[in-house]
Amino acid sequence: MSGMLAAAKQREVTGEKKKKPEPTVWKLARRHPLGRSIDEVVRLNDLVKDCNKQLAEHKAALKEFGDERLIKSCVADRALPSSPMFIQNADGVALNYVTNDCCGSSGLASGEVDELETLLGVDKVRGMICEQTEYSLDDGVMKLPGVAEVVDRHLTAARNELVNTGVLKADQGERLVKASTFTGLKRGTLDRLPEIAGRSKSRLKIFLSIIGATFKRYIKT
79: domain range? Predict the structure, then answer.
């Protein structure tokens, strides 16, 4: 084979790059009012980036302070501080220190479980964690003709009906519901933070760093 076909094949094999088209540029006259708008967009965008960086730094410092006060309350008062929680300056301006308990919906990595066992002991951690399962519907199967309407009426009955009527094959019916299993802290575990801390601030600080996303803390503006 020779000629254009061979050349096209050779370009594909050698990975010859296609020439990129030239960009379209609409040039403004020097005194056009939108010329200043371009300069302002660039300037303000840089300003926003700088502001966001500073905002993140200040929020991080405030969150760290809130974490310290939370830990202090658990250890000294043997109780969780009442919600909502605020950090207020001398002028009366306050920001909300928010905590979100994600036990039951956020999993722990195997390494995090190992770290907790080292910190608190195997038996104590086994009483805190449990294997949890989440179920979802397979999008691909749900899009098959007639599937979604039946599932809406009743999930269990729908699966049996779909298989019996031949809308789905038996193996498709088994795949209709997908399950994902993860190990996470039991619901209510964070209510036991004072108990977990005992008299040790450092132990509770390490505990909070290990569980990560299970106990989200942030500053709300």
Answer: 33-101
Both tokens assigned to 22: 């030239």
**pLDDT digit string (tens) for 162-221?**
889 999 898 888 877 776 788 899 989 999 999 999 989 999 999 999 998 899 999 998
- Quote the tokens at residue 192: 């036991």
DSSP-based three-state secondary structure for 9: helix
Same domain, 117 and 197: yes
Percent helix, strand and coil across the chain, each to the nearest 5 = 55, 15, 30
Could you tell me the pTM of the whole model? 0.66
Structural domain count, the chain = 2
Q: What is d(CA 150, CA 188) in angstroms, rounded to the nearest whole number?
A: 37
Same domain for 95 and 121? no
Q: Are residues 148 and 178 in the same domain?
A: yes
Cβ within 8 Å of residue 201, ≥6 positions away: 71, 72, 75
